[in-house]
Structures are given as C-alpha cells and as structure tokens.
Sequence to fold (629 residues):
Amino acid sequence: MPSEAAERWFALAKQFPVSPKLRERVLRGSSQTDSVQSGQLRQADWRDISAMLVIDQVDDDGALAWAYPATLEPNVADSRAVIIDAERTPVGGAIGVWPTEAAWVPFAALDAIIATLPPTLLSVLRTAQQPETLLDTAGGVHRAHADPSPGSGSALGTDELLDALETLREAPRLTVRDDSQPPADISAIALPTIMQVLRVSQPRAMAIRLGKEQLTADETRALAAAVGVTETAIEALRLPLPRELDRELQEPRWRPMIRASAVDGDETAARAQLGYEAFQLAARQTGSGRELWRQRLETVRNLRSR
Amino acid sequence: METTIIRDEAAALGHLGVAALKMMAAVFTAQVPRFPGLVPPDEISDLVNQFFADKNPGYVDAVTAAPNDAAATRLTRKWAERWLVDRVRQHPWGALRNRLEKRLERSPLFAPSAVAHYWREASGEDADRPHTHAQLRATALAARVDVTFPTGGGAVTLGRAGQLEELIRRLLHVAGRLSVSDITRICADRFPSVMLSGDAHLSAVQSDDAGLDEAPADPDAVQVAADRIREAIRGETLLRLLTDKERLVIRHSEDMTALARALGVGRSSAYSAKAQLQARLIELAGDDERGMAALKSMIGLVLDEDGAVPSSPSDDLEDTRAI
Fold:
C-alpha cells in the first residue's frame, strides 16, 4: 500500500477507536468471569459462520439462550430490523437487531461479550418482537423503513445474518442424562498393569482406574490387549462426566481454551478432554457443585498455560 | 494454530493496527478484480480507505470482537463484498437517474414541482397524496413496459414509445408528486437488468418476438393455436435468457429447503433468490396475460429438462453477485 494511503488509513484508525468496554474485556482475557445474561451483545460462531446476538432470555439448565440476530454493519437492515441509534448504544456505532427472528441458541456457539445493553433498551426490543407495535422513536430506537432492493449489499447482509442464525442454532446442545450410573469396577485392572502398559505414573494410573481419564484410542487398544478384554469393556470403565461439570463446560468463558486445543476444529472432543482433566483433579479432592468445577477448570487452565 | 494478532494489537493500541491494515489490503486485492471496471489496480488502497471510513465505527468493534484473525478476515471479506456490490450498483444507478430525468423533462405529461427535484403530473396539483411504498411497487409492476436487450451489448431499452412515461404517470397519480430519486429507486426495482450492466448472458438476447405484439386476442380456434405456438416460441426465447442458477430456482421454487440445499445457501438467501427471479421474469416477459402464458410455457420447459442443471452453481453465484 502506498505510504500516503497508509498514513490516511492510520489517521482513520485513530479517529475510530475500539469501544472502551470492549477493549477492557479483550485486555483482561475477554469473558472469563462473565456468565451468559440477558441484555448482552455477544459474538457467536459455529463452523466458521459468525454473527452477533442480543441475549434476551437464558435457559440456565439447558444452557440455551433466546437471542436476536444483530449486526454492527452500517446500512444493513430490512423492514423487520430495529435500529438502535449510535448515541444510545454502548458501542461506537448503531446496532441493527431483528427481534422477530429470535431463536434458541446453544451456549456452545456463544463467544465473547461485546457490550451489555441497558434494561430499558432490551425491553424496547422485546416489545418490537410484535411486528405491529409502534416504537417510541424518541428513545433513539426505530424500525428500518423499507426492504432493501434485491441484490443490494443490505439485502445480501440481511440474508447472510439470518442464514448464520440457522447454523448457530445447530451447535451441539447439552445432553441431559442422569448421574446414577454405577461407578467403574475399581478392582478390574491392577494398578501396576496400567502403569506398565501405558507407561504412566501411579496417580495417573489411579485416575484411569477410577474412570476419570479419557484414554486415546491407542491406549484403549493397548490396555485391552494386555488385560485380555474387549476395547468396549475398557471404554465402559470410563465414568461419564458429572452433570454439573458438563453444564459448566458449556459456559462461553471456557470457549477460548477449548478452541485453542481443538484438533481440526473439533470443539466437542476438546471440551470432553478439558472436562476429564478437571475430573482427574477431582480424584484427589472432595466436593462438587458448579463453583468447585469452575475452580478446577481454572486450575487446568493454569496448568496448561505453564 | 490460530492467531489473534489483529485483536491483540487493537487491545494494546486502542485502535486497529498494522496487522488489520495488511489484512484489509489483502482482502481488497483479492475481491476488487471480481468487480470489473471499478477501479484500476493501483487505486485499491483508496477503496480500502473509503470502505474503512464508510463502515466505521461498527467495523472496528466487529473486527476486535472476532475470536481470531481468520474470523476477522472472513468478516472483512463479507463486509467488503457487500460494500463493493453497492458501489458497482451506484454506477448504473446514476445513469438510470439521468435517463429518467431527461424523459421527465421532455414529456408534456409531467411538470416540475415547487419542491426541488420533485415531479408531478402536468394536469395534477402539486401536492402529496397518501400512499405506501408497496402501492408504488405494485403500480410499477402492473404497467406494461417491454424491455429490449440489444444484441451485442449496449444500453437496455426501457419500453416502446410512451410506455415508460405511462408507468411514471401512474406512479405520480398515486403519490401526487415524487422525487427523481424515488422514481429511480422504483424503476431500479422494476427493471433489475438495467442495474446489471455488463451481465454477459444479456448480450445473447434476440429480439425476435417483435411480430407477436400485433396479434389481437381472437377466440377463433386457429388464432388460439397460433397464440399457443407463439407463447411456446416466446417461452423458448425466455428460457435462453436464464442462468443456470435461475433454472435451479424455478425447479425448486415449491420447496425452499431443497432450493437452499441446491444453491448451497441458507433459507433466507433462497427466499431472496426466488424474489429476485420473480422480478426478473416479470421484467423479461411482462406481466400481462400473454407474458404469463409465455412464462408458463418456459417454466414447463425448465421442469422438463433432466440433468441439465448443475448441482453446484457456485461460479455462477459469484458471477451474479459481482454485477
């Protein structure tokens, strides 16, 4: 790029700073402590498809959010959109929101918080879910006037956003199952056998025997051969993750860590792996509950970043 | 390994930095050649700056919120593509506005309003009448205007003598008075091909249906048979004007899920593709009775085609977007 044009670009960059709140969040490691709450404007992405969402309601048990598709892109709106004027938003520019197109989106698709809308704005958006309701335009919120002409940038942008919402809805949901499965048979395999076959330390062998560690396919095969049982029998030794840990793992605060360790973008496997690492820690600790699992996951994060 | 250099730089500086500039320049260098005639290659950096000025402050926050550099690049590519689409549309837009303004000035049917850039019927009063955009759109669609595409490219002709004037007169009759911009917007919707300058398949059109216009409606059996044959011929002529994507839309127009799958897009995009096709078909065939009959005959031909439709029209999609 010619230096003159680059200079002009840098002047523009300084003229349009990042919203202070957003910058603060990115600096302190994004959403690590924030849970999903109504009023949040969040980044969401799944399978390389991204969109922004305004969270209206949260189904905490199901780890689902009732969310409106939204965009910060200027001049992208159709007659269903509600525009929040720049002066009223907690970010630098206007926000376009489609309250009539709301959907339940799994937490697994949610990402960083961009901003939080004040409750008054959220309630205006809720009212706007009824397409016929008149909005109080004095509040800096108005409906877009008409549909954009077909094939225009605005029409393409709207279509893409609503299509993205369809993809986001298909992110994996928390599977609710009951915790009453019998514990693994502790006496099934002798500790030294595990240590020898898998060449692991005693604490890790103990975790494996307790069913608190996820084995790789190779390890499963080796152990099955050594003990003389089927691979399925070895897999059956593994305990399912406790329900509360499973639920905590859905929180977007763990998403950056899950994404960083995902192989070929397989976040489901990376999430399970993270879960078993925290589960292993619990082998040597007592207690349960969401808060304790959060602390253990925090410990895993610290261990990993060492 | 995913990188977050763009975001980290933005957080550290408080505004976008070198990594973002490099990414934007790369995106535009790849995108601009898809929009022929927009700018010479050495002016791409100007486009980057204009886009940056136009799309802020929303763009800065959106890029900073993207989880990694790859996502920031994807977002920029999409925003840039839409922005370039609109820029290209502005070119024919200006030309259409000029043409309409000239027609308004020349015709004794119209007179300038006291409000600058507004026009009214010469015989009507200079005042607004209550109306909706949908009404105007419907009025424009109901008017008969024959669109002819010259062989070998060149300007599309909008209507035979007086047809376009009649359309504008009806619009003004509904609205009382309208600005040139409003009339241009309505005509751009009514005649999307005018906006598709440089659309390759349009140059293949043959205006061999001129003789059909003289045929009066006659219940005579021979006449009916002749009409049918003409409709069939016109249907075939229309069929040649359709792109592969448009044929796909016709095939699956009853089942949006199947259409979305066939086009490789989501359902919202599929609905838009259908609406776009409808507008184009009406524009091509006219929406009077005979036009509809020709359309039916053409749709029959498309549905009878077997296996001639490509399953992945991604090249074609790019083509139509890069108008």
About this structure: The longest helix of chain A spans residues 153-169. The radius of gyration of chain A is 24 Å. Chain A touches chain B through 60 residues (CB under 8 Å).
